Structure formats: C-alpha cells, structure tokens
Amino acid sequence: MALAEALYTLDLDPVAHPFFQDVPETFERLRTLGIKIAIVSDIHFDFRREFALLGIDGLVNAYILSFEHGVQKPDPRIFMLALDHLDLSASEALMVGDRPERDGGAVHAGIRTLLLPQEDGPRRGLRSVLAMLHQT
Q1: Cis (ω within 30 of 0) for the bond into 100?
Q2: What pLDDT does 17 receive?
Q3: In which band, very low, low, confident or very high, does the pLDDT at 19 lie, cut at 50, 70 and 90?
Q4: Residues 83 and 111 sit within 8 Å (Cβ to Cβ)
Q5: 78 membership: H or E segment, kind and range
Q6: Which sign, positive or negative, has the C-alpha torsion 102, 104, 109, 111?
Q7: What are the domain boundaries of the chain?
Q8: Which of 18-32, 34-48, 80-94 bottoms out in mean pLDDT, i.e. has the lowest?
Q9: Which of 5, 7, 73, 106 could form a disulfide with 102 if both were Cys (CB 3.0 to 4.6 A apart)?
Q10: Integer Cα distance of 101 and 107 in angstroms
Q11: What pLDDT, on the 0 to 100 scale, is given for residue 85?
Q12: What CA dihedral angle connects 41, 42, 45 and 48, to 10 degrees?
C-alpha cells in the first residue's frame, strides 16, 4: 500500500511532469502572433499547476481535459470541445500531437493535424509549428 501511495503522490507532483524546453518559447511566440492555444489531453488529473509553475498558464486559452468532459481521444468530440472553447472552426485550427492513434482523431473532426515524432532530448521539435506559420 505504501508503494501505491508513493506512486500516486509522485504522479500528482507537478515537478514529476517536466515540459520540453521549447514549449514556453513556442507558446510565447504563438501568443505574440495572436494565436489561441488549447490543451487537449487524456490526462487523469488537473495538470494546470504544471503550466502555472512554468509561468505559461496565462498563454493557454483553454484546457480540455478528458476527466472533466467525459470524452477521450481519439473521439472527435474532445477536439470539437476545444474548437468551441476557442471559438474557431476546424479549418482555422491546427492540432499538434505525438500519438497517431490518439491525436489522429482531430482529423476526423476536420482539423489539420501535425504529428511530431517522439524525440529524445530536451526539445520537442515545436519549431516546426512556428515554421509552418511562416509558410502560410
């Protein structure tokens, strides 16, 4: 029982969920460009504290967390909830994810979807999101 409690405590500790180094700079740049950000996640607890600890919670317009809405990826409804919260149409949005089997559900909602490969190291490859903005 002690092991289970220790694991649960660790699971809820914001320090145990570090962000990739390029998340803050990407979010800040997107905000500068006037682009809205929604976090769509299947996470089983409220991880807004992690964003607050990093000082980027004010850059996020909406958190769509499956445990709050009773729907999980890849169900297109979770992505539609994000669009509703951002007041955007599917054609105005870009879903950025890393798990085709889960995040690919955004395609079924009509949202352009960029799937980033799993990478080792401190950066996530989010520069490709910013590069896409300069191509449009």
Answers
A1: no
A2: 52
A3: confident
A4: yes
A5: helix 76-86
A6: positive
A7: 23-135
A8: 18-32
A9: 73
A10: 11
A11: 97
A12: 0
Task: Give me the residue label for tokens 């089983």.
Answer: 44
Which CATH superfamily groups domain 23-135? HAD superfamily/HAD-like (3.40.50.1000)
Answer for the pair 131, 112: CB distance below 8 angstroms, yes or no.
no
Q: What are the φ/ψ torsions at residue 108 (nearest 5 degrees)?
A: -70, -15
Cα angle: 9, vertex 13, 19; to 5 degrees: 145
Q: Which residues pair with 94 in a beta bridge?
A: 112
Take residue 65 and report the two structure tokens written for it.
Answer: 């967390």
Tokens 């669009």 sit on residue: 83
Phi, psi of 8 (to 5 degrees): -65, -45
Cα 132 to Cα 13: distance, rounded to the nearest angstrom: 34
Q: Report the distance separating Cα 95 and Cα 80, nearest Å.
A: 11
Using the structure block, give the residue that is written with the tokens 């896409």: 132
115 bridge partner residues: 97
pLDDT tens, residue by residue, 106-131: 999 999 999 887 665 545 577 777 77
